[in-house]
Amino acid sequence: MSGRLFGVGLGPGDPELLTLKATRILREASVIAYPLSEGGASLARSIAEPHLGPAQREIAIELCMSTERAPGQGAYDLAAPRIAAELDAGHDVAVLCEGDPFFYGSFLQLFARLGHRYPTEVVPGVSSVMAAAARTRRPLCARTDRFAVLPATLADDALLSAIAAAESVAILKLGRHFARVKALIEGMGLTDRATYAERIGQAGERVLPLGETGETAPYFAMILLYKGAEPAILDALNGPHLR
Amino acid sequence: MSGRLFGVGLGPGDPELLTLKATRILREASVIAYPLSEGGASLARSIAEPHLGPAQREIAIELCMSTERAPGQGAYDLAAPRIAAELDAGHDVAVLCEGDPFFYGSFLQLFARLGHRYPTEVVPGVSSVMAAAARTRRPLCARTDRFAVLPATLADDALLSAIAAAESVAILKLGRHFARVKALIEGMGLTDRATYAERIGQAGERVLPLGETGETAPYFAMILLYKGAEPAILDALNGPHLR
């Protein structure tokens, strides 16, 4: 009988935001696999570390965080057969994934390669979007609000049409797109409705009104934008909660 | 010194999907408060129960789940001063909230009434949307997909414009709007791109392709719709993962 493949959502970075289920799977799995950046660091592994044991085998998926269209594809092509060999031998493999595995998660790379061949279970996690709202004490949405999540990598027209059709918006993965997105929001006259959140739940966490930011942002940064009419959310945007 | 107000996200219903932080706050708070439906049941309290102690005081917020525009406003008007009295006396109060407190959460009612007066902290939780994707083994979004969350209570034009401006969509709170929303999706020719998920993480959980559903749905039901081009998500929609 083959082992089971787990995609384990670890939440945004705060080690207290792991779920009980994630900690159980991390303790029980024979093998853990995790993405490793070019510099040799793994945020996912560092979040999971308190729950790992010395007898577990580890498979590092060595990524090259390049700007090519499909970064890390080669790394997943190399990692998939190593993980498959463990599953074939009857060992459970837990793949560590920041945030939620099925919400822009890196786990999709392995799910596409192995999910149809092995019994697969996904452990949902707290998204960085919900964590950013909690951290800034600024609700995301209520009642009939439409809520859109948009990668900053999108072209202007795709961003604009989605922002037009929502009351609340989270724009993720800002990085080198930050100045363009910030200008887009300014052009819509929505800067005073926007909150900037950087590295939520990680070292170097920072939140401030969008109008007070500089011209650059890291990849792990997002903008929360609220165009709706919910008084409690409008109050929170401009209230004393942010700092 | 006043006590602290906590909005505690409990996740979708599975008791293993609580975060470590939620379980700590539930253990430490002097007082817990939770919404109670007309029938005397509290899903939130039942999720939290294993972590509550006999010495904690409890404040039940007695809701009447009516179809009026602002259900339960009166219940929150009554509960807020009771909670404020505990906070004034220096006691921490944990308000239990299914899912995530700031993502269509009932906690917003108390945040609006008390958040500006007392030190307030929100503990983010796993959303039922991420839990439904995990349960159906059907990823929500990847790469440059735009993801929209829409309450089924919206009028057709508001739903249509938002669906047009997204690659992936979750439609929540179906209840009496189910037949209309289902017909809307059929009219767009997207039925075979849609998954139905009911009471995820709760007793009576059920998932199936939208085309195989009947004509009614409970309030705690959602539709996941994928219009994008990610091969792994398209495979999962029609693959053996759903059952």
From TrEMBL, chains A, B:
The keyword Transferase applies. Pfam families: TP_methylase. Pathway: Cofactor biosynthesis; adenosylcobalamin biosynthesis. InterPro entries: 4pyrrol_Mease, 4pyrrol_Methylase_sf, 4pyrrole_Mease_sub1, 4pyrrole_Mease_sub2, CobI/CbiL, CobI/CbiL/CobIJ_dom, Uropor_MeTrfase_CS. It comes from the Bacteria. Its EC number is 2.1.1.130, 2.1.1.151. CDD domains: Precorrin_2_C20_MT. The keyword Methyltransferase applies. Residues 4-208 form the Tetrapyrrole methylase domain. GO terms for molecular function: cobalt-factor II C20-methyltransferase activity; precorrin-2 C20-methyltransferase activity. GO terms for biological process: cobalamin biosynthetic process; methylation. Keywords: Cobalamin biosynthesis, Methyltransferase, S-adenosyl-L-methionine, Transferase. Belongs to the precorrin methyltransferase family. This is Precorrin-2/cobalt-factor-2 C20-methyltransferase. It comes from Aureimonas phyllosphaerae. The lineage of its organism: Bacteria, Pseudomonadati, Pseudomonadota, Alphaproteobacteria, Hyphomicrobiales.
